[in-house]
Amino acid sequence: MTPIVVKLFNLKSSINNSKNTPFKSIVELDLESVDLKTMGLRNILKNYIFSSDLKDIDLNKRQIINTINPHSYCVSKKDLSFKKALINSDVLLPDGFGIVLATKVLFGKHIKKIAGADIHAHLLKYANLNKKKVFYLGASQNTLKLITKRLKKEYPNIQVASYSPPYKLEFNSKDSKQMIDKVNTFNPDILFVGMTAPKQEKWVQINKHSLCPKTIVSIGAVFDFYAGTVKRSNSFWINLGLEWLPRLIKEPKRLWRRNFISTPLFLISLGKAKLNLS
């Protein structure tokens, strides 16, 4: 491990151990001296992937929680602002069998796959138990109504609000200000962002210092899963590490690229990492 990476890892660990530290401005400054282009799979898996249990996440401090899977890793190799958003996460969850496999292959370490739906359910239970406020930012108005209806039935102690931003590839400053104002006016404890990757992670990275929630989580498709507009694969496929297969069959036009292009590219990256070629 290079000295700059050791320094970065030590900074990140010390900041994450502080209960009242704001979002990681120190680490972000240090990242300016890191060559993101050369930061490969081995480095990311070793130094940034969350490998504990969800109950170990300290929800009393401000933090950003993101997920990574083989497809998002491949996208981040070409989109450095996305890679920066991912490695700046306070908690980066291994949302994909490929990430679990790669960690096992490279380090002989077994970690548990944690999907966006898992952290969503975990945080809702916490919010209900502690009578917290949650905000959903993203998706259509219809999807948000379905989420609110289900949430009030299953978690009656949670106060909920939501906002459907304009559907755009990129938000302008006016859009972002309106989104931030909607969130901050409600003043939630937890903000769920569902605007698809990498847009959601990059938007949070840019605007996080203007947002008041203590916990911010980008969970994309989970909005549709929870609303019931898209059905998540059942536990049989999830336990086999094939959660992607039923979804691919149902939505081939949308998901073919991540399975037939990103998966082989990720395996190539894994092979190179194993041979210490990258």
TrEMBL record:
Transmembrane segments: none annotated. The keyword Transferase applies. Keywords: Glycosyltransferase, Transferase. Pfam families: Glyco_tran_WecG. This is WecB/TagA/CpsF family glycosyltransferase.
